[in-house]
Description:
With 373 residues, the protein is an alpha/beta fold. It has 16 helices and twelve strands. Helices cover 46% and strands 13% of the residues. Bound molecules: uridine-diphosphate-N-acetylglucosamine.
Amino acid sequence: xxxxxxxVAGARPNFIKLSPVINNIIKRQKNGEQLSYSIIHTGQHYDxxxxxxxxxxxxxxxxxYQLSVGSGTHSVQTGLMMIEIEKIxxxxxxxxxxxxxxxxxxxxxxxxxxxxxxxxxxxxxxxxSFDKHIPEEINRIVCDHLSSLLFPPTIVGYxxxxxxxxxxxxxxxxxxxxxxxxxxxKSKSNISELLQSLNLKSNQYILATIHRAENxxxxxxxxxxxxxxxxxxxxxxxxxxxxxxxxxxxNENGRFKVILNNEAIKIIEPMSYxxxxxxxxxxxxxMTDSGGLQKESYFFxxxxxxxxxxxxxxxxxxxxxxxxxPPNPLSNMKKNLSDMLEKKTGEVSNLYGEGNAAELIVxxxxxxxxxxx
Length: 373
Ligand code: UD1
């Protein structure tokens, strides 16, 4: 019997998590295992530097299906994806659908598969912010409760799933596929030319990213954040690769344009994965509202100021590597910053596994299929 897997990805963080999984599947094929796969790219992210560059750089094969769904409201985006994913799954009839992360592409894949009674494996299961106003939280909860195999990246994720009544026999904490990816690619990056061109020096700049709708679409919050970045830049230059949504909102609102003319704030296009890994390693610390970057900072022993009111990674907060810094008037954010700088950090340990999560996850999915469950 040839085992058939369908993997669905669509947004930047999905591609990073997809890479170690797909590479393991390909390795198994080369070793003669009877295994076939297809990749569906929903098209949630479509700019070259939000999508193609990740496939090229991380050696991910071109998707078998490109849905080109693009941007839209959550229901429009998710609904269009489901319509197209359903057609493909009805035709392909895979043994398992692999849904990754917590984006709208993840939930579209899980819903379409579950309604066709195709079992779903959810990679990065169990994360919770305990706030259903966050769109990713809705995606996480629904995807987890539709999945037949759940792969939380952390112990906390495992415990969250058990508390929600999910059968323990279906939950496996093998570590975090993002850690796998970081280990593979971390030494490939050399950003000295980029730093030189921006007049930045190693360990003397702050890496900043902001993209969450809660921070960008709420103009009061965005104003707080921009005031804060401007204040930081008085002492240390800030390297700010800008998400297309953030760029659009800044360009549309004259009051934010001040940030574009600040010499100490280096605004550049979104970075490729390997360049970003380099930029973290050379920074003095990271400020971000990206869930992935919070953890990548930790992988490289950099402190992280999380520009949000919650984190799906409480273990980072508990070990002192992460400090919450929600958008607020300047004095509050400055206080969060000084708290972060003073905090003692625990040793960087194996909170996210041993770097072999993808291998163990693929192994488990295959053994489930062979055992007919
Ligand atoms: C999505 C994920 C989020 C993840 C993030 C990484 C959901 C609910 N959110 O948020 O978890 O952290 O991706 O970036 O799935 N845009 C472009 N070009 C692109 C992609 C987006 O211009 O290639 C602009 C569009 O104006 C679009 C906006 O960015 O409306 C938001 O994109 P969208 O995919 O809806 O959400 P993200 O904020 O990227």
